[in-house]
Amino acid sequence: MPDDPRRRSTLSRIGGMLRRGARKVRGRRGRAMPDGPVTLQLDGHEAVEVPAGTTILEAALQAGIDVPHYCGGTCSCGTCRVEILAGADQLSPTAGREQMVLGAERARAGDRLACQARLLGPARVRVPDWF
Fold this sequence. Notes:
- The protein is of the alpha+beta class.
- It has helices spanning 5-20, 56-62, 96-102, 104-108; strands spanning 37-42, 48-51, 81-86, 112-113, 123-126.
- It has one domain: Beta-grasp domain (Ubiquitin-like (UB roll), Roll).
- It contains 4 helices and 5 strands.
- The protein has a 5-stranded mixed beta sheet.
- The model is unreliable at 19-31 (pLDDT under 50).
């Protein structure tokens, strides 16, 4: 869907973040993200090195890995849900809206939305098969 304005908006936001450098992106509480690159291992794919503060979705898209995200990464559909296999403590904290979209059971299981979880250190995730 290259003509989808929501997708263009997401890609434009990602591009802006990369041009500014992720260390200048601020977290939900105004704290600066850690400096330096972090590694994301998407199960079944080569590891990707990205700037700290990059979301799992942004990292996957940079690497050419398809992660469903029908809402364009706006935390409203839940299709970018990923299972955290390792490094859950290396991700940004879960916010209220993310918990609402995930649902109580998935949030308790430790799943995250790829559009919301920012990488603060190395992590390994699996994208579940939806269809």
